[in-house]
Amino acid sequence: MISERIQRIKYLAGDFVSSSVAWFCFNCIRYNATSVVRGEYGSLLGFLSSPMVLLGQVVFPLVMMVMYYLSGYYNDVFHKSRLQEVFTTFWSCLLNALLIFFAALINDTPKGRTVNYELILILVAVLFVFVYAVRCAITNHTSHMIKTRQWSFRTLVVGRGSAAVAFVNKLNNMTRSAGYNIIGYVSIPGENDVKDVPLPCYSLDDIAQVCREHDVEELIVVPTRQNPDSVLATVNHLFSLNLPIKVTPDRFNVLLSQVRISDMYGQPLVDISGSSMSESEKNLKRVIDVIVSAVMLVLLSPLFLCVAIAIKLDSEGDVFFRQERIGYHNVPFQIIKFRTMVKDAERNNSPQLTSDNDPRVTRVGAFLRKYRIDEFPQFWNVIKGDMSIVGPRPERQYFINQIIERVPSYALLHQVRPGITSMGMVKYGYAQNVDQMVERLSYDLLYLENMTLLNDFKIMVYTIKTVITGQGM
């Protein structure tokens, strides 16, 4: 099986080479189509060998690669929809053409609009033909290798009941492979396992070790019992493996409102390890997160200095407060905030939430919490990749265990990075007990079902309003 890294390199190299060839061909067409260029450079060779054109031959394909990345084309290099590939390639080429034209080519043409339109259309057409031809060739080869069982993904089926065994038999009897190399079953507690299955069987508690030892690439959850709570509890256990997790849509309609169905070579499965955002939105969201967080850390640095001095003068203890939270794919991380409580506030007690008039909150801390200033250092968590600016608030494992007992669908929040702010925070605010955390959860699940960049922007606007008006507590 070819590695994901090598496959991604093939697409990257193909896009760069095809974009470079397309740009070279366009320059030849551009010379013949524009009198301004012909008058300035004389011959075609003189034009193509000029310093600016040579520089553009290197720079513009690299600029195009940025747009290809933002389109999300490289996120999934094996499970590509042919139709989606056409549309993604077209829109990427169109945006690249418009960007390059208005940045570098508009002065080459006379004032007449006709020539401008023609050059843009020619650039789009040339880019699309060359780029899509290479992409299509790589995708066709990949599809052929998978369907003929020359390539496959090492897969564990989570479930060992009659439904799981029937599912594996169906996969093995397909004329064209779906791409899965089933290497074993994982028993789900509480289910009746089928005896004498022809593949190795493992315990759910040992799945992390099994995945490491056997280089497992995918997980498919197929329990026999149609129990949503059992499914969600199992899924929550799997998130920390950071592997694609799929379920069969006919048995888990309860999950379909939060995830998308993906058709992998004729075998429809529901991927519940990622959000419902498009691949381009995921990449744009991450780019926006990093840029905004970097800018905010620079702009707020004078405020950070003032806050640090105030905290040190107000009470004993460190300026920053670090605490383990559970983040993306159920992986723990250290969240960083300005300290708002007295030193060792939970030293002699079990984890507890802040309440109104909490005596542990310092005078400066009360002000910071009111205006949400204590959350600002989490922009560093965003840059590190632990968090996003907008997303469900991360919780401690102690409280997550209690929430999941009441609302197992909380496990679905681990599909995405947690956020500095969230729909739950702007619509509900801080929770003072587990009951309120469960109430706030409904907003976070609603956000998960409706994740878009536009909704992220709305939540950020509401958050800014909360900060300015001091409605943080």
Protein architecture, described:
- This protein has 473 residues and is an alpha/beta fold.
- It folds into three domains: 4-147, no CATH class; 153-271, Rossmann fold, CATH 3.40.50.720; 279-469, no CATH class.
- It has 17 helices and eleven strands.
- It has helices at residues 4-33, 35-41, 44-48, 51-70, 82-105, 113-147, 162-172, 207-214, 228-238, 279-299, 301-314, 363-370, 378-384, 397-406, 423-427, 434-449, 453-469, and strands at 153-158, 180-187, 201-203, 218-221, 245-247, 260-264, 267-271, 320-326, 332-338, 388-390, 419-421.
- β8 (320-326) and β9 (332-338) form a beta hairpin.
- α1 packs across α4 (51-70) and α5 packs antiparallel against α6 (113-147).
- The chain starts with a helix and ends with a helix.
Task: Give a short overview.
This protein has helices at residues 4-33, 35-41, 44-48, 51-70, 82-105, 113-147, 162-172, 207-214, 228-238, 279-299, 301-314, 363-370, 378-384, 397-406, 423-427, 434-449, 453-469, and strands at residues 153-158, 180-187, 201-203, 218-221, 245-247, 260-264, 267-271, 320-326, 332-338, 388-390, 419-421. It has 473 residues and is of the alpha/beta class.
